[in-house]
Amino acid sequence: MPDIDHEHSEYVASKAMWRKYRDLYAGGEALRGRAGEYLIRRQKEPLDVYLERLSRVFYENYVGSIIDWYAATLFRREPVLSFEGSDETGRGFFGALTEDCDRRGTPLAEFFRRQLVEALLSGCGFTLVDFPRQEAPAATRAEEEARGASRAYLQAYTPEEVIDWSFDERGNYEWVVLRTSSLRREQWGDAGVKETRWVYYDKEEFRMWRRVEGKEKPDKPQLIDAGRHGLASQRQVPLFPLEVSEGLWLMNKAALLQLEHFNKSNALSWALTMGLFAMPVVYTERDWKQIVGEAYYIQLGPEDRFGWTEPEGKVYQIAAENLVRLKDEIYRVCYLMAQAGGGLAVGAPVSGASKQRDYTITQEVLRAYGDAVKDTLKRILRSIAAARQDELVIDVSGLDEFDIGDFSAELEDARRLLELGIESPTMRKQVYKKLAAKYLCDVRQQVKDQIAGEIEESFKQ
Q1: How many other C-beta atoms lie within 10 A of the C-beta of residue 40?
Q2: Directed axis angle between helix 407-419 and helix 425-439, to 10°?
Q3: CA pair distance 109, 370, nearest whole angstrom
Q4: Residue 62: which of 19, 93, 37, 25 has the closest Cα?
Q5: Taken in order 208, 213, 216, 217, is the CA torsion positive or negative?
Q6: C-alpha 121: how far from its chain's center?
Q7: Strand partners, 188
Q8: No. of H helices and E strands in the chain?
Q9: Under a CB-based contact definition with an 8 Å cutoff, are residues 403 and 249 in contact?
Q10: Mind listing the pLDDT tens digit for each residue in 29-78?
C-alpha cells in the first residue's frame, strides 16, 4: 500500500500559517482559546501577570470583516450563466445545479462566495467535481438520467485537506491526495469514533481509504472504493483551484499588521487598567510600618506628605495614535482607502470626486476577484457539460458591478446605444438579454433560461 499519509513539503511548511490565518479571520473564542500563541509575553514578565493578561485578552477583528465585505460586495449580484443550445435535458440539469450544487441545498452563487472567502483567507479554495457512485454502468443516456448517475455535484476543500499533489509538464494536476476527518456516531448517546478518509485522484482513476480511531486499537487504513472518476474521459483530475495572486491574498497582506495591532491594543488596555489602581506614596523620614488599604487609615506626622502615583499619559496618547495608524494600514494594504483615515481630520469634508477616486482602486480589485471566480466557474461547468455530453455552449458573465443603484445608469446607457440606430438585430438581442439577466439576477436559472429563449424567439419572428 502506498504511503497515503505523505504530506507535500509545501503543505508541511504552510500548516501553521493556515491555522494562524484561520484564527485571525474567526476571532472570538477561536482566537481566545489559543491567545497564548499570539499575545507576546514581555521579557521577564511574571507568569501570574501574563496569565492575567491572557484572561483579559480581546481582539479587534478588522481583516475578518474586510474579507467578508469583499465576498458580500462581489456577490451582491449573482453571476450570469448563459447556456446556448437546444439540449433541454442539459438546461434542466444546470438549472437544478444552480439551485443545489452540492446535494445539501447550497445555491451555486453561495458556494462560490464561500470559495472566494477561502481564497482570500488561505490563498486558494478547491472545488471537486464528483458524480454519484453506481453499481453498474447505465446502458443508455435515458437510463443514466433516470438513475441520477449524471447528476454531477461539487464539494469544497480547504488547502489543509489537499495534502499531496504533483503537476504535469503543462502545470495541470497529475494527481492529488485529499484527507478529511470527521466524528462519526452510529447511534444516539454514542461517544463516536474519529474517521479519516484519504482519496487519491489521477487523470482517470480514484482510490479511497478509510481509518477509524476511537476503539481499543485504531484500524489500519482500508481501501473501500476505487474506479474511474467522472472526468476520466477528459483525462483531467476533477479538482479545480480558485487561486488569487500574492498581491490579492488579503489575509497574507494584513496578518502581521493585525497581530501587531492585537498586541498593542491589549498592552494599552492593560496599562490603562493598571493606571486605575493608583499606588499611594508617603513622603516621610520616619520608619513606615502602617498598613495601607481601602479598609485602613494612615497617621502622618507634621512634616509628612501623602500622594498618589499617576502616569502623565503621554505614552498612552502615542500608543492610541499608533493603533489608529495600524488600523488604517490594515485597510490600506487591503485596498480599502476610503475606510482608512488617510491623514484627514475627523469630520473633514470630503468631495464626491475624492471618494470616487478612493473607491476606483477597490472596484478594480473586486473585478480581479470576479474574473478569477468566473474563470473557475466556467472551467467547472464546461468540464461537467463535457462529461455529461451536453450539447451546450456555456458562458459566465457579471460580477463586475458592485452597486445595485448603478442599474439605472446602465439602463440609460443601453437606451442611448439602441437609439443610435445600429442595424444589428444580434446586438439588440444581446443587450436585451444582458439587461434582463442582470435585473433578474436573483430569480431561478430556469426562469432566466425561459426569458432568454423568449427573447431569442421574438427576434426570429
Answers
A1: 13
A2: 170
A3: 12
A4: 25
A5: positive
A6: 5
A7: none
A8: 13, 12
A9: no
A10: 989 999 999 999 989 889 998 999 999 999 999 999 999 999 999 998 88
Q: Which residue has the cell 438513475?
A: 147
Look at residue 242 and tell me whether its pLDDT is greater than 80. yes
Measure the CA–CA gap between 177 and 183, rounded to whole angstroms: 20
Q: Which helix (H) or strand (E) holds 15?
A: helix 9-26
- Please give the Cα distance from 436 to 81 (Å, whole number): 12
How many Cβ atoms from other residues are within 10 Å of residue 233's Cβ? Answer: 12
Q: Which residues of 415-438 are buried (b: 16+ CB within 10 A; e: fewer)?
A: eeeeeeeeeeeeebbebbbbebbb
- Residue 32 to residue 384: CA distance in whole angstroms: 43
Quick one: how far is CA 413 from the chain centroid?
A: 34
Q: Buried (b) or exposed (e) across 357-381, using 16+ Cβ within 10 A?
A: ebbeebbebbeebbebbbebbbebb
Tell me whether strands 239-243 and 80-84 are parallel, antiparallel or unpaired: unpaired
- Which among 168, 71, 178 is positioned nearest to 128, based on CA atoms? 178
Lowest mean pLDDT among 17-31, 64-78, 446-460: 446-460
Evaluate whether 326 touches 60 at the Cβ level (below 8 Å): no
Specify the 3-state DSSP secondary structure of 156.
strand
Strands 162-167, 173-184: pairing is antiparallel
pTM of the shown model: 0.80
Nearest C-alpha neighbor of 271 from the set 310, 231, 304, 220: 310
Nearest to 242 by CA among 108, 70, 105, 369: 369
Cell numbers representing residue 138 in the block: 447505465
The amino acid present at 13, given as its one-letter code, is: A
Q: Are 127 and 108 in contact (CB under 8 A)?
A: no
